[in-house]
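Table S2 (text version). Query chain:
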Amino acid sequence: MLHISVNVETLLEKGFLPLSRNDRSPEKKVVDSSVIPGIPCELSVFTDIPEDPLDPVGFSSMRKLKNPLLKAPRLLVNTLDEVEEQTLGALREQGFRKLVNVGPLPVGPGSNLEDHTQKEWLDAQEISSALYVCFGTMLELPEEQVMEVGYGLEASQQSFLWVLPESSQRKLGDFLEGLRTRIGKRGLIVSWSSQIDILRHPSVGGFVTHCGWNSTLESLSCGVPMIGWPILGDQPINCKFMVDMWRAGVRIESKSSSDGSSRIVGRSEVERAARSLMGSETLRKRAKEIKSKAMEAMEVSRARLKELL
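Corresponding structure-token output:
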């Protein structure tokens, strides 16, 4: 997202942004390395670029970032060279010479889960068999969408640990009671979890996430492939790279309504994505390869942090 943010002026100057609500030419709004050097793949202004492409105010804020960052004595970023080497190189060539990658920040060697119920449930699952479902704390899904997620997870026949806020659980008490009865011990629904400890647990084999950067990097560092379900901010571009460039997961296919709002994703799509991810040895192998690189990089990041401190 940093690379896009500091180059938003280029997108504005070349007419890629902002969009109008009458713009129906997505093929003319594709950004690649010929537009912004260092972009590792084609990005659609409609679906992949951070911020609302119809909102000039959001881009006005992004335009103000570049000069202060160029003047900063140090610019610390938390990422993994293995997946963003091209982008980091392009940023340095643009003048960000004091950019220092201190990531991925250390996540530790193993799970230290303190919640007894969650630990007991995870310990009872087979290696890499459980799907961890968590959409973060910034957004609460509509009730209809929560129900479709539940039905989809049930139909997938996969074991799952689902973090669902208490507010959603209160509103959907009857539905969740029925779901718990039908799935039995195959699923566990909780209101909070220690995400990094869940991801580090050996029974976890997949992660349903909105693809916020911290969650994405934690999952990569733990060797857990993802189902990307982006909604806002940097999530779409993180998901794009995770699926198309890093090959570490699959995406939920979500279409927008004519007014630009997101439609409810049906249970069949949730089921398809869960089965696709959990049944893929290729994705699991690729995630483990990235984890290996991340473990090596953490030693380097520790040394860099010590130098800075």
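Notes on Table S2: The chain is about 45% helix and 10% strand. The mean pLDDT is 88.
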